[in-house]
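Justification of computing resources. Each target in the renewal requires a structure prediction run like the one illustrated here; the chain below, 554 residues long, is used simply to show the kind of job we budget for.
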Amino acid sequence: MPDPTTAGPAYWLRDNCPCADCRDPRSGQKLFQITDLPADLAVAAATEAADGGLEVLWSDGHRSTYPAGRGTADDGGDRRTEAGKRLWRAADFAGAPNARYRSPEADWSAYLADPAEQAAVLRAVQRLGFAVLRGVPTEERQVLAVAESFGFVRRTNYGELFDVRVEPDPTNLAFTAAAIAPHTDNPYRDPVPTVQLLHCLANEAEGGDSALVDGFQAAALLRAEAPEDFAVLTRTPVPFVYRDRHTELRADRPLITTDGTGRIREVRLNNRSIGRLDLPDHELEQFYAAYRRFAEITLRPELQLSFRLAPGDCLVFDNTRLLHARTAFEPGGTSQPPEGAGGRRHLQGCYADLDALASTLAVLDRRTAALDELAELFEGEGAGEYLGEAVTQAEHMLQAAALAQREGAPEALVAAALLHDVGHFFDKHSTGVVTGRQLMAGQDNRHSETGADWLAQWFPSSVTEPIRLHVAAKRYLCTVEPAYRARLSEASEYTLQVQGGPLTEEQAAAFAALPGAADAVAVRRWDDAAKTSGAGTPCFDDYRPLLARRMAER
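Resulting structure tokens:
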């Protein structure tokens, strides 16, 4: 018998019970308080589950089943710290000798069309701190579309977006032609915007090149070279201040923030915004010596990744980690410059947040895993016989999807046709595997409900409801179209009886009134026609982009 103590303390184990009584199956949120558990909670019995996991009977009568291993969904740790990052220097990127990383960039149209490309871009921002999207239309406000592709625009006192160009009466050094040293934005804000975007609309000026510095790398170098200075900067709150006629902002935060284990988690560095520190003289001396050393590290040429933004480029970066800078330029104003003047330079920027980016990336990864699992089902269980018909289960579903496409069906119905029989493969809601063999043996496996419930983890109701109702649609058609039943195959006639036979007149009327009835009937007709041996059809991978788009449907 497995020892439950090796899986963790009793309260930890019970607090992580995955059953539907303890956690909402949709959100994973717990449905009880720790104080709801008895003070004398104990394991009454423990047995090994069929999959090698652990089944526990608790002293209060509750039963829990745990998968093999101790891991939980939270084991990834805090990916905001240096432990979840790839620290870099300029020479680490493609184009430099012995580069370690591929340049984190992608075409905007490919990013929008391909979930894998989008995931790669967002993962680059999460791990390396930045990515560049090329070919974003050079139209005003497009930077908002980029932000909204993975999260939500963070409105500040600068508005939902801001223009980085020379202004006649600038309220910020960014709105001049002056050089700007490596810095983070909005350090005076609590909480600070954690993602910044800069979209280049024009860059004809002499100068105005951009640079990025990995602030975590700079902080790690300070820690290695001058640990006492590092300690000073992590424990000294710095007053960051911004004010204009309409705004008064202040946040007191260290230049380097660490988590409880000492790992670097955030950098705030912005010389323009540091207010007056009121500290004893010896502490001021320590702080300014450490501050200067840290600033000097950020200016090391080997840490500065320099580049020039071209029209259509959109830079997305982690504002809690990366420092950004620019060289001075000759201003040309916001319109066509006069003869001999500098060229026009115009960027539009906005802010967003890392939590939304991480959420979007996690969902993209989850969808990819789901598509991989479906592909395995088509290749594995799908290669088996289909209820005595002349095609395999996978061939049957692929034929149904091809028929739907041929008739110009909406993508949601093509997806429903493709996936309508996944419930035959397995049953996530009971013990063991339930396939079409049980149905042919006279046991209704309720595959339409099973499949719809399982697919609802990723797909909207426009896909799942026609699947849920496609068996009822067969029973309905047998009632309202006598000729339909006469065309059923021998196997389909048999399963009709197992599934309850034709609906009564009253049941048929109730079915027809359901919102998804017409779609379910359409899927049913493709289902009935998709049993031709040797018919050429696309493979599952051909439908992956379509399925990914339907997964993204809200």
